[in-house]
User: Fold this.
Amino acid sequence: MSKWFIRHAWRLALVAGLTAMLGLAVACGDDDDDAAATGTPTRGASATPADVGGENVVTIAAGEPIKIGAMQVLSGDLIALGAAARDWILLANEQFGQVKGFDVEIVEADDLCDAAGAEPAAQQLLAEDGLVAVIGSICSGVNVTVQPTFEEAHITQISGGSTAVKVTYPEGRDPFDTFLRTVVHDGVQGVKQAEYATEVLGATTAFSAHDTDAYGTGLKDVFNAEFEDLGGEIVGTEGWEKGQTDFSALVTSVTTANPDMVYVASFDPEAAAFIRQLRDAGYEGDFMGGDGVITDQFLTLAGDAAEGAHLSKPSPLEVTPALTKFQADFQAKFGYTWDEQPYTSQSFDAYQVVWDALNEVAVVEGGNLVIDLDALNDAMHDANFDGASGHVEFDDHGDVIAAPGKPQIVFSKVVSGAYVQQDFE
Amino acid sequence: MDSTWAKRNAPLLAGLAIAVAAIVYTAFTSSKDETFWADQFFNGLTIGSLYALIALGYTMVYGVLRMINFAHGEIFMVGAFAGWIVLKEVFGGDGMADALIVPAILVAMLAAAAASAGAIVVIERVAYRPLRNAPRLAPLISAIGVSIFLQNLFLRLTEGRVKVYPRIFPQGPSESIDLGITQVDYIQIFLIGSSLLLMGALYVFVQRTRAGTAIRAVAEDRDVAALMGINANRVIVLTFVVGAALAGVAGVMYGLWLLSIKGTMGFLPGIKAFTAAVLGGIGNIPGAMIGGLLIGLSETLGREWLNELFGLGLGNQWKDVVAFFVLIAVLLFRPTGLLGEKVGKRA
Assistant:
């Protein structure tokens, strides 16, 4: 036997090494995501690298269109979210019309909602002549990958989704000047969810499940921290890769821990399969999810199991006449309602931010349209109007500021297969 | 299993013995009760038996052609969709009468097997046979191309949306058998049972029938088999068809169990099943079965077990890491897999 050990020494060493790495990865994996919103310098203090004054100018020849990218997830499991956002951008494009006599064209790019699809989508857009801005992505995992690319190109991104905190509070650097979002971030949502969980649901123990991308891990970190601050106990935190369908092992962990509630930070296909398998296994506690889950597809996929689930999303509360009109126009154009899709009216407003800024800074010179990208960026930062999703105004990080006295997060409960909004502020 | 075999495989047997001892040890000293461990065992067995069914296709094709059919995961997906269409369109989906459920499932499985087999016959003719005598890498790349094509074809046909199987198999809190130590869901028993049945049938088919003998002969030496009057092309197609039919049935079982199906659903199970085939010894049929169950168990039970033994906090997201870790650890000591034999110059 000892001979065997000597002969296989390097193999044994390799297995031992791999085991050690596994342990090490686990030890480090838990605490790398506490990018909190503390002490980050403000926008004024940060300088864009490679800022060669006045060189970043796009000239549109007469008869050519101005191009705005729509970087969205347009294939795969999350198409329901991405296509709805894209359709709202197209609607806005139709309603707002030309800028100083020049057409505006929407160029679509599919970002696959993951890091692998992000850079190709960005490069596809940057290769377009006449690109001035990009709307999207709604996926935080995409944005953290492409933010440096667009920063270097002086192209401003504005997203109607993408709620991970670290998108506008990047670790170890100033916030990206070239990124804005018309949606409130998970720092707000996760805190509200934890308050709802303790105050409305009366939960004292929670099992936290999440997908392993930027959105899921970020949101669950905020929720977990706030839930524990409020006196609750997190009895387990486990993740999954996007696309997982068999949750039986995870469900066994949950039913063994038997918490008051199960919290999920992910998108709808996984959340739907997970809640169904939970209910089939006999789990009867509360279930709560966020803006990635609250879609029509979640109701279809989860069926009866969705009943009684609590879900939140960033959204306007009041139905303004403007919003009702947009809704009717949208239905007429695309043939489906958008009610329960998040990131839709926010994407519409993102388009208006770009369109307003274009009108402000674009100059007609000798029949051509000249757009200074940095001036456009400044004008977008200065946006201040009431849009389809509510008031739009940005803080130093590029996050939207809520109008005073208006809740930024609304909660719904699934009752008889439909989302019913709950009173909670 | 003579004594020289035992001697030669002493490290393997020792490893298995240590693993079993550790599992038994943790089961008794664990902070979690036996029900938890029994549940995880059946969870692992369920997904593992699906992996095993799919793995058979990889291993059989490798046996006769020395080729990895990387489109096999998509064959599994095609089967799932075929079964879904039959259940929804022919039998009326969710609203079907109780008396129809058993025949509906059987017909769906047959249809899935037929659809998967039909698909592989076309693929073999178009993408593999022209490359039969090309360098080893050419059919491999061709298979990857087929895989990407089928994924995107189905994504396009379904507009990238998830399709939902009719919920006809009884699933729910009370739909289980009480084993004393834990409750096992009917669907899990159904999956494990029918997988074992199919694997047994395949084993008998390969060992006891003329066609099975022909497959084994071609696997051993295609040229000599041809000299003996065996039509090698037909045997190769037959091998593909049998493997594809099993994957198609696995697709229906997957759909009945997990309900959500989509164009990319075959990718991960395909990779896992391939891993299972390699772990068991690629080309070896019982090896694929054992490999499948082992991969299933290591991603559920193995992960929890590592957590207990070493105080790690490996969440569900680590299950694939653990499964592939087991693969690497085994291959380091047995490069041919658990039951794989050293193959001569053809390998």
